[in-house]
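Hi P.,

Sorry for the delay on this. The queue was packed all week, but I finally got your sequence through. Input first:
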Amino acid sequence: MDDISLDEWNTYIETNLTSAFLVSQACIPLLKADEVIGRPDGGSTINGGRYSEPNLGGDGISKAGLLGLTYSMAASASTWRIRVNAILPGWISVQNECKEADEKGMDAHDGVLQESHQTHPAQRVGKGEDIAEAVEFLMGAGFVNGHELVFDGGVSRLKYPGA
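Then the structure:
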């Protein structure tokens, strides 16, 4: 962290934390419970982010800040019956992550090395669909508020992931 400039730090905070705050703040009027229009329960918002890489301290710290934002919003927004949770994904395979797979027209998930899949107790890295399922679960789970949903294929439960 000793080589991160203040500009880089501010970029991490603005990108990962301030943006989530501003979007959430803008959505509150739309998410509030409103008996008059037939919406007795408020909406739900989901923050996300988890892992950091070495030498990217601002990234990891700003993502930890998202958890604080989630907890604070969960307590504060409950006044309007708005639920706030966080999804904490592990490695999610996405398009343009593997140049070789992209060039061959392969699905991004298929381009991941088998060894990478095997480092996960689930025997695969995550897919975009996994994020969608986690969001769908949290949106429908009316009694879940202020929760961190970790979905990383079990990697966080290993003593030495990848060893």
